Each structure stands twice: as structure tokens, then as C-alpha cells.
Amino acid sequence: MRNSPNRIVAVIFGAVYLLVGLLGFAVTGGVGFVATEGGLVLGLFEVNPLANVVHLLIGAAFLIGGIVSAAAAKAVNGTVGATYLLLGIVGFFIADTAANILALNTADHFLHLASAILLLGVALGTERSGRVATA
After folding, report:
1. Which of 3, 14, 28, 83 is least enclosed, having the fewest CB within 10 Å?
2. Nearest-CA neighbor of 16 among 53, 78, 62, 50?
3. What is the total count of domains within the chain?
């Protein structure tokens, strides 16, 4: 199962999240660690240093899951997907409050929701058991 959809998605997401985490540090100089506003990655997605660290940790989890096994990749994809679904929804309500410790903006909310759909779709729709029920 080296080429399982979950492993492929996990490795790609892992590489992207590690890159985003590193790029984030280039735009968050002078930004407080948990500031509610931050610098823009790609001119669109707002980040602060805490968000950068979170992106690095998530990227590492994706890469480790993708390298270890299809089951590990599926677990990471499903867990992060479910978390992003929640964050995508809650983000709209906390954006202009002190609870916005990740400096989320509207672009982030929609990206989290889109990522959640893709991650949950792969995690829930692939790597199913080949067992067939018999009567």
C-alpha cells in the first residue's frame, strides 16, 4: 500500500505545511507570539508565530503518518480533517475576538473548510477493508 491515497495526501500536505510554517516566520517579524493579527503568507493567509509553530507540527504529523503506513496516514488525515472542520466553522465566530490566538482571517477559514473536506474524504473514503459480508 505504498501508493495509498492516504499516504500520498499526507506526504503532500506534510510538505506544504512545513513550507507554510517556515514561510510564515519570514512575514511575522515583530508580531506577538499569540497576536490576533499577523503577517500574510502568499499575501492572503494571516499568521502569527504560534500559527507557524502549529503548521510545522501538523506538517511533521502528516509526513510521519504518510511515511509510517496507510493506517497512520489515514488516522492523521482524519484527525486533522475533523479538527479543521471544527476550526473552519468556529473561526468565523472568533475572528474579531481575543480568542483568535492563531490570527485567523476569512481566507484561513475557507482554506480550513476546503482542507477538511479533502482530508475527511480521503480518510473516510479510501483504505477500506476488502472483506465481503456473507450470509
Report:
1. 3
2. 62
3. 1
Range with the lowest mean pLDDT among 32-41, 51-60, 66-75, 120-129? Answer: 120-129
Please report the beta strands in the chain, taking only residues with DSSP state E, as ranges in sequence order. Answer: 39-41, 45-47
**108: domain range?**
5-125
Cβ-contact 9, 73 below 8 angstroms: yes
CB 100 within 8 A of CB 87: no
**b or e along 72-106 (b: 16 or more beta carbons within 10 Å of the residue's beta carbon)?**
bbbbbbbebbeebbebbeebeebbeeeebbbbbbe
Tell whether 61 is covered by a domain: yes
Q: Which amino acid is at 129?
A: S
Residue pLDDT, tens place only, 53-74: 999 999 999 999 999 999 999 9
Indicate whether 130 belongs to any domain. Answer: no
Whether residue 42 lies inside any domain: the answer is yes
Q: What's the whole-model pTM score? A: 0.89
3-state class of 86 per DSSP? Answer: helix
- Return d(Cα 34, Cα 16) in angstroms, integer: 22
Domain-located, residue 104:
yes
